[in-house]
Amino acid sequence: MAMPDTARRYTVDDVLSFPPDGNRYELVHGELLVTPAPRTRHQIVVGELHYRLRGYLDAHGRDLRVALSPADIRWPDEVLVQPDLFVVPAEELTPEDWSGVHTLVLAVEVVSPSSSRYDRVTKRRVYQAHGVATYWVVDPDARLVEVWTPGDSRPEIVTGVLRWRMAEATDELAIGLADLFAGPPPPPPSPTP
User: Fold this and answer.
1) What is the dihedral of CA 129, 44, 160, 136, to 10 degrees?
2) What's the CA gap between 10 and 78, in Å, rounded?
3) Domain boundaries in the chain?
4) Using H for helix, E for strand and C for coil, what is the string for the chain?
5) Please, what CATH class does the domain formed by 38-180 belong to?
6) Which residues make Cβ contacts (< 8 Å) with residue 120, sequence separation at least 6?
7) pLDDT digits (tens, 9 = 90+) for 7-27
8) Which of these, 130, 163, 128, lies nearest to 145 by C-alpha position?
9) Residues with Cβ within 8 Å of residue 58, at least 6 apart in sequence
10) Cβ distance 83 to 110 under 8 Å?
11) How many CA atoms lie within 13 A of 76 on its CB side?
């Protein structure tokens, strides 16, 4: 398949009809967002976060579930997103498809070089507009997490311990970022000739 024309306005049905080619296709108000398969480091961080969120929810949140993408989350106004990781009310999940999922309690995007603008600007605005309670932009290269809520104009920047609580009456989840981003920092990008 030839690469879709990113200047064209798309619909959710258009995007869902693309054959699988290894890219991630998302849609925000008709704008097609295309990102290639993620790097190994990206997937390791997503896996670690899933493991920690799953353990926390198993202990405290029988009414919430954590899920991984690919997952087509649809909202009105031609929006189709695939957060890397997300927490939703259990009653919205069905074994058939993602059509019942509308309430993201937590959305997580792990930044890759190809997704930084989408994650930090385009998708962040969509998540805020659709009332996603908490949105984490996880940057393994910078070793930080941006924490956004719907009314924020600036994120909370976390560099030490990332904290999240599913409800006021529960213990909080605490994730040390040094552990999450274990390993040496990545080398700086090569200068462009």
Assistant:
1) 0
2) 8
3) 38-180
4) CCCCCCCCCCCHHHHHCCCCCCCEEEEECCEEEEECCCCHHHHHHHHHHHHHHHHHHHHHCCCEEEEECCCCEEECCCEEECCCEEEEEHHHCCCCCCCCCCCCCEEEEECCCCCHHHHHHHHHHHHHHCCCCEEEEEECCCCEEEEECCCCCCCEEECCEEEECCCCCCCCEEEEHHHHCCCCCCCCCCCCC
5) alpha beta
6) 111, 137, 146
7) 678 888 888 888 877 777 878
8) 163
9) none
10) no
11) 2
pTM above 0.85, yes or no: no
Which residues lie below 8 Å from residue 112, measured CB to CB, with a gap of 6+? 35, 38, 39, 42
Most confident of 20-24, 93-97, 115-119, 124-128: 124-128
Q: Is 160 exposed, middle or buried (0-12, 13-18, 19+ CB in 10 A)?
A: exposed
pLDDT of residue 157: 97
Phi, psi at 123, each rounded to 5°: -70, -35
Name 136's bridge partners.
Answer: 108, 147
Token digits of residue 170: 């529960």
Nearest to 73 by CA among 106, 96, 103: 103
